Every structure is written in structure tokens, then in C-alpha cells.
Amino acid sequence: MNEKNNKRTIFGWSMYDWAKSAYETTTLGAVLPVYFVSVVVPEEGFVFRGNLYTGAEVWGFAIGSALFIFFLIMPTIGAIGDLTGNRMRFFKLFAYGGAIFASTFYFATSGDVIFTLVIYFLAQFGATGSNVFYDSVLKDITTDDTIDAVSARGYALGYLGGGTQLIISFIIILFGPDMLGIDTALASRIAISLAGLWWLVFSIFSFSRMNITETKSETPKNAISGAYSRNFKTLKKIRKFPFLLYFLIAYIFFWDGLQTLINMSAAFFTEVLLLDQTQVLIVFLVVQFVAYFGAKLAGNLATKIGQKNVLYYTMFLLFLVGNAAYFVPEKQLIPVVLMGVVTAMGMGGLQSVSRSVYAAMLPKGAEGEFMGFFSVLSRFSAIWGPLIYAYVSASTGNPRLSLPVITSFFLIGALLLRSVDMDKRISEEEWAAS
């Protein structure tokens, strides 16, 4: 039996966000997309099946394709963790594996498009899998009155950790060429690989602080078949709980908008707004540290004005900034930084409150399975935005035209959220009887 609200365990759990956010911020957010667009992909573009694509278009298609694959397999992995009582073992396996692969981006050089994308896929597979089990243990270590604050604390530490590592990357890229006599491309590779090592080292520290016990309900021999059967039954059961179903549908839309802004922003800044690597790093540093306060503020506001109102507020901010980006002129850093501040306030709250709302609704004993769906829904929803960005950019030659479509997801999500009763919960008895 796990001790609820144990400070050591909660600190260890929160520190995993500190660990992994270095990879998400430096590698996926600020540095790798710019490095991929400006160095890995040739200046004339990348030819695939007779068609020529820009670096940002390739990046968008790659993200969407990878997330679609993860969508197909992650619910089963989460269910296997539940059935075998091995959630923590899977958690560590995905975390360590993803971190090791993330450290090998150092070997991706100019022209290595396929190699870079393969490493991205393997590292992101680890990150996605670890998220399933990271989220699934949240309800095990908290109570209803602490889950919002603990969820927000995890995101807040993630923003601080990602921001701290991003400062290190900023120093390497900005001063490395002069102080170490290396070019900017090599400095970027070093920064990206160090983010993977950061993820690995702090994951080890994080797991050393977590004390979470589990019960085994299936033998490994029956786990895979049991997982598929359980997933099918789960999909049928969800229809009997409209509040959960509507929340998940709303989540698909507003999460797609958020993840597209995050995943495609660096490529957009580089290819469309013509910002250089240093300027992109400045924007991401601002976002990381402001998002820390956004997550903390959202955790407090959720108890005062309600979770639904916090979600409305954050979606409004993101809708506003996404449409404003359409009008930003080229080579102008200040407007982009201001947009980053608004984005950070919105994303911090949207991420932390969404997770705590979903976790609180779940029945005991199905956390890994449901968080597998939650994580995979995150990936499923995030598929379409990058693909839309890449498609609109490739077909019109103007990436800015994709922004109104992407930001409309926040509007749709807000409208669907009106049908959700945030106070409803699924008891073990209701779940067993459904």
C-alpha cells in the first residue's frame, strides 16, 4: 500500500519532470528543430518520392507520423504495466532508454536526415512511454485535495529544469565557437546530447526518491492478450461515462493546438520569421521560466475559480497568441518574446490542470491503463497539427496560413468542454459494474 502525500515520493516524482523536460525543451523545442532545418536538411530541401520538402515540412511530417505510431501502441503498454504490476519497471526502462538515445544526437551531422529522424523516433518513444507511467502513478501518491497542486508542481519543476538546462545550452551555443574554437553546428550537437545526459542523470536521482509498490494481477504470459482485451473493454466502458468521454474529445482538440504551437514554433521562427539560433533560445528561455509561474498560478486558481474556468482562461491566451503570430514581421525578436510570455502563461496552466482533472476522474486499479489512453490521446491529438502545418505550407507556400486552422482547435475544445462536469468521478464499483 502506497503512502499518500509522502513528501519524499512526491519530490522524486516531480523531479522526473525536471529530468525529462531538458530533452523536451532543448532537444524537441529550442535546438533540434533549428539544427534540423538549418543544418541537417540540405539548403535546397529534402527529396522524398519525387517531391521536394523544406526542413520545417519534413519536421512536421516526421512528428505527426511518429505520434501516430505511438498512438497505436501506448494504451497496450500502459495496460500491460497495470496487469503485471510492473509500472515502475516499465517507467524506468522507457526513461533510461529514451535518455540514452537522446544522447546520441551528437552523431547527426549535415545531410543525415534519415539518421536524425530515426534517433528522434527512438528517443521520443522512450519519452512517450515514460510519460504513460509517470502520469499513471500520480493518483497513487496524492489525494483529491492535493492532486492539482502536485500535478502543477511537477510541471513547474519541469519548466525550471528545462529552463536551467536550456541556459547551459545557450552558453554552449553562444560562446562555444569563440571559447572552444568549434562551429555553431557542433556546439548545437553538444547541447542536444547534453540534454539527453541530463535526462538520464536526473532520472536516476528521481527514481531513487520514489517509493511506490504495486500489486500483480496477471502473469507475464497472459499480460499481452489481457492488455488488448482490457483496452477493448475500456473503450466500450468509456461510452457509459459521458463526462469522461466529452472531456477526452475536448482534450483532443485543445491539446493538438497546444502541442503544435510547441513542436513547430522553433521551425516557424527560423524559416518564416528568420530568427537565428540565439534568438530562438532567448524566446524559449523566457517561455520556460514564465511557464513555471503559469503552472503554479493555475494550481492555485483551480481551487478558487474552478478547473474549467482555468482551462477556458488558458485556451483563450493560446488562441490569442496563435492568431497574433500571423501578423509578426520577419527578424523582429521583441514581438516574438512578448508572444512567448503569453504562451507560457497559457501552456503552464493548460498542461497541469488537464492532467489533474483526468487523473482525479479515474477508478482505482486502472490508472496505468487510463493514463496510457491519456498519454496516447495526447500523442494522437498532437498528430494532426504538425501535419496540417506541413500540408498547408507545402501546398500554399505560406506557412502563416496554417495558424488560423491550428488555433481553431482551442475554440472547438472550449465549446466541447462546456458539456463536462468536472466534479464527477468514476468509483471502483461503477467501473466494475459497467
Describe the structure in your own words.
With 434 residues, the chain is mainly alpha-helical. It is 79% helix and 1% strand. Helix 4 packs antiparallel against helix 13 (367-396). The longest helix is centred in the first third of the chain and has 34 residues, at 7-40. The two termini are 26 Å apart. The mean pLDDT is 86.
List keywords for this structure.
globular, 434 residues, mainly alpha, two-stranded antiparallel sheet, 1% strand
Task: Please give the structural blueprint.
Blueprint: H1 7-40, E1 46-48, E2 51-53, H2 55-84, H3 87-102, H4 113-136, H5 138-141, H6 147-179, H7 184-209, H8 220-238, H9 242-271, H10 277-305, H11 307-324, H12 333-361, H13 367-396, H14 402-417, H15 428-433
Antiparallel strand pairs: 1-2
| Element pattern in H and E | HEEHHHHHHHHHHHHHH
Number of domains: 1
- Low-pLDDT windows of residues: none
Number of strands: 2
Give a quick summary of the entry:
The chain has 434 residues and is mainly α.
